[in-house]
Amino acid sequence: MQTKSVVATKPAKNDQITAIKRQAMKAQEVVNQTTITNDDDLVAVADQINVIKRLKKEIRTEMEKYTKPAQAIINEARAKYLPLEKICDEAESQLKAKVAEYMDAQEAKRLKEEEKIVAKIEAGRMKEETGIRKIEELGNEVRTIQTENTQLQRRKVRVAYIVNAEIVPQEYWIIDEVRVKRDALAGKLIPGVEIREETQIAII
After folding, report:
1. Diameter of the chain by CA atoms?
2. Residue 13: what pLDDT?
3. Of 4, 27, 158, 201, which one has the fewest beta carbons inside 10 Å?
4. Which range, of 20-29, 113-122, 179-188, averages the lowest pLDDT?
5. CB-based contacts of 184: which residues, under 8 Å, 6+ apart?
6. Are 178 and 26 in contact (CB under 8 A)?
7. Contact 121, 131 (CB under 8 A)
8. C-alpha to C-alpha distance for 187 and 141, rounded to whole angstroms
9. With contact defined as beta carbons under 8 Å apart, do 63 and 23 qualify?
10. CA-to-CA distance for 53 and 50, rounded, in angstroms?
11. Which long-range contacts link 45-53 to residues 24+ away (Cβ below 8 Å)?
12. Radius of gyration over every alpha carbon of the chain, rounded to an integer in angstroms
């Protein structure tokens, strides 16, 4: 067997990413050119796996020089601002709910008055032209609230709610794969799940 060796080096700091990328590409070349036909090949490949593992560790170390400080900043920002953002989200949602409740009530009141007028016309207790004028005076459904700074729109949307999860068809259920695998490996017999032994190679 012939393989190209992947050698971990310590280049100048400015060239670090370029060097690491070159080594990673060489690692892939090793995979493409490697065949195992005897025990000597096996030993050589084991050494190459170890070199690649060390390269992976180097990549992780270099990457974390950027990700760890960035993540620390992100975590601090989230801790400070997410609770405040949540307060604003809830306040906005509650105010919108109050607006919707009021506008729904006003629309229900308008429709009720309109029904009364129509009923009077149909019963002959009000002239048709008078009824039409009164209906026009009631105005149309209010859908938009316009202010100097903003515009609120009232609109009907379809929203689905699960009111009884027990009768939802199984095709919509989601399997908790993590829990299933954990319990199965712990010895629990679960229909539809089987334990298989697979070969894995570990570097020790």
Report:
1. 107
2. 60
3. 158
4. 20-29
5. 190, 193, 195
6. no
7. yes
8. 63
9. no
10. 5
11. 45/1, 45/3, 48/3, 48/5, 48/6, 49/201, 49/203, 50/203, 51/5, 51/6, 51/7, 51/8, 51/27, 52/6, 52/27, 53/203
12. 35
